[in-house]
Design goal:
- This protein is of the alpha+beta class and 371 residues long.
- It is 16% helix and 36% strand.
- The strands form 3 sheets. A 10-stranded antiparallel barrel has the order 1-4-5-6-7-8-9-11-12-14.
- Helix 1 runs antiparallel to helix 2.
- The N and C termini lie far apart (88 Å).
């Protein structure tokens, strides 16, 4: 997480009072003053963090009924902790109609260079399957799973300057790329915590712009309400929902659920997936002994078509013994990406008609032994 210089200053103030006899109220004033100071790195991180959406549609898609639906680009950005690094954020980019399937997952790192703040971008050097363990965790950054700097590849730096109430900057020089015929690219960004504009350009071997010229490469985002909502339960389960993904049909006791899922360990390895079998897991709700306790709890309130992520503590999964058959070690936290693809409501038993009841009573009063 971000290195907090304010804590260091406040601690120093307290030590000053202890060794020099400074009055307690004066120490408190020094500490309060320290807490009011925000470093440039902290300000940049604060202004970048949040949920963003483009102010203009990225594209329009025709639905089955012929209507046109506008699709926007979205981003979720949150501070996270990475082993061996400081001042890091996780960024997840997706389209507004499928926010549970990001097209980009990356890491930002903020650092000081010659008196300025630089933003360095990293690609997460992992398979698409492994990246699934991180999807949606910008909504619950304290549960961001194990990662270290050796799993990251630096791509480019953006040097930032103060610009009004925010920051703006660009790459100090072109960076190598191989995207769409370009051999080099540049990038720039401007943001103030309310809006964020990015511009990328690619150049061929002769220095000509081959993509991203002018407004074609510029996207302006604004802060919006989160499209992924996290709930931390008292039992330790974390539920991340995508509210726009479901319908009004909510699972009820006795319903037959058809659920597609991928199950992960915290290192990103998949221990089970219904997609590899090309068949959803079918069970009656609640699943009882057909599933771990946390899975049953995690199905509560799920709606038809909904997407959900579950982070289940060990004590509500397989506990100290693990599940050797599934290659799940003891005391493992389990993570699931879930899609409720179908829901069967059992039809209530029909009430017998008056005529049927009379016929039953008549037959019950007849002595068939005399026939």
């Amino acid at each position: 997480m971000f290195k907090n210089h304010r804590i260091v200053v406040a601690t120093a103030a307290a030590m000053l009072g202890a060794v020099s006899g400074v009055h307690a109220l004066e120490v408190a004033a020094i500490a309060e003053s320290a807490n009011s100071v925000v470093s440039p790195i902290e300000k940049v991180a604060d202004q970048l963090s949040g949920t963003w959406m483009t102010t203009s549609p990225y594209k329009s898609v025709k639905s089955d009924d012929g209507t046109m639906n506008e699709i926007f680009m979205t981003m979720g950005v949150s501070p996270i902790t990475i082993q061996g690094m400081e001042n890091t954020l996780y960024i997840e980019s997706s389209l507004s109609d499928t926010p549970w399937t990001p097209f980009r997952q990356a890491i930002f790192q903020l650092y000081e260079y010659k008196g300025k703040v630089r933003l360095r971008t990293y690609t997460m050097a992992m398979s698409a399957e492994t990246l699934g363990v991180y999807v949606g965790l910008h909504a619950a950054p304290s549960h961001f799973q194990t990662i270290n700097k050796d799993q990251l590849i630096a791509t480019l730096d953006v040097e930032l300057d103060v610009s009004g109430s925010g920051f703006s900057g660009s790459t100090p020089y072109p960076y190598p790329t191989g995207v769409l015929g370009a051999v080099e690219m540049t990038s720039s960004v401007t943001f103030d915590g309310t809006t964020l504009t990015t511009t990328d350009r690619g150049y061929d071997a002769n220095g000509n712009i081959v993509w991203g010229a002018n407004e074609d490469s510029s996207y302006t985002f604004e802060q919006v309400e989160p499209y992924a909502v996290a709930q931390q339960r008292e039992d330790g389960i974390v539920i991340i929902d995508y509210p726009a993904s479901g319908s009004d049909v909510i699972v009820a006791e006795g319903d037959e659920m058809h659920v597609h899922y991928s199950g992960y360990l915290t290192d990103g390895s998949i221990f089970d997936s219904s997609y590899t079998r090309n068949a959803p897991f079918v069970f009656a709700y609640p699943p009882g002994n057909r599933a771990i306790t946390g899975w049953g709890i995690g199905m509560d309130g799920l709606s038809m078509g909904a997407r959900r992520k579950l982070v289940i503590p060990s004590e509500l999964a397989y506990g100290p013994g693990g599940n050797p058959r599934a290659n799940i070690p003891g005391d493992s936290i389990l993570i699931f990406n879930i899609h409720l693809v179908h829901l069967n409501h059992p039809e209530p038993a029909a009430e017998p008609s008056a005529q049927t009841t009379d016929e039953v009573d008549s037959h019950e009063g007849h002595d068939h032994t005399d026939d």
